[in-house]
Amino acid sequence: MSNIKRIFIIGHSGAGKGVLAQAVAQKLGWKFIDADVLGCVAHIGRTLSEVVGGEGERAFNHCLTEILSHQITKENSVVTTDESIICDKKARELLKSEFTVYLKVSTAVQLERLSNYRPLLPVDNFSALLDKLHEERDSLYEQVANFSLSSDNGDIEEHAASVIKGMKKQAILLASHAEKPKAVSMYSTKPRITF
């Protein structure tokens, strides 16, 4: 179907990364891999550095990057990532080289989806905590993704179809770039799909 062998789905907790990844994998007949290992802030209500300290946070992010490096060697897979994968520069570079989907979610929808079971610890203002994460991470997610969509309406079938359509468009763009003479540039020229 295309030269794209993997799809990585990134975004905040509560966006629906796992549900979307499973739906896309099923439609493509690919394997679903859940590498969303912690989701610390939304699960616990504390930042990773508050839970494990600065050194622990760096070690955890390094571990996530190792997981990502391993998953990039696999073919025909749809991989969800931990929300903090974007915090590591090497991980961001790896994600830029793949078909990466940023599944967006508004804070209001995120709060609604997470309210039944998260956070595990009391938080004075959970909405403000989630807003802070959006402020810190949204632009990083945007930088590495070549396809983005909002999950706010919850239509998994529509979203899965959009991801597959985006993947096909990306494959066509990549093929057309491969046929053209390559200009030397120190900047990434990765094509970006928008709907």
Question: What's the layout of helices and strands?
Answer:
Elements (H helix, E strand, L loop, with lengths): L5 E5 L6 H12 L2 E5 L4 H5 L3 H24 L5 E5 L7 H8 L2 E6 L2 H8 L11 H19 L2 E4 L5 H24 L16
Parallel strand pairs: 1-3, 1-4, 2-3, 4-5
Helix pairs in contact: 1-7, 3-4, 4-6, 5-6
What does this structure look like?
The chain has 195 residues and is α/β, with parallel strands linked by helices. The protein has a single domain (6-179), classed as P-loop containing nucleotide triphosphate hydrolases (Rossmann fold, 3-Layer(aba) Sandwich). Helix content is 51%, strand content 13%. The chain contains 7 helices and 5 strands, in the order βαβααβαβααβα. The protein starts with 5 loop residues before the first strand and ends in a 16-residue tail after the last helix.
Strands ordered across the widest β-sheet: 2-3-1-4-5
Total number of β-strand segments? 5
* CATH class bucket: Alpha Beta
Radius of gyration, Cα only, in angstroms?
17 Å
Largest sheet: 5 strands, parallel
Quaternary state reads single chain
Order of helices and strands: EHEHHEHEHHEH
SS strand fraction: 5-15%
Q: In CATH terms, what is the architecture?
A: 3-Layer(aba) Sandwich
And the CATH topology?
Answer: Rossmann fold
Q: Count structural domains.
A: 1
Rounded mean pLDDT is 81
CATH superfamily: P-loop containing nucleotide triphosphate hydrolases
Number of helices: 7
Mass-distribution shape: globular
Low-confidence stretches: 180-189
Structural class: alpha/beta
Distance between the termini: 21 Å
Q: Specify the helix fraction band.
A: 40-55%
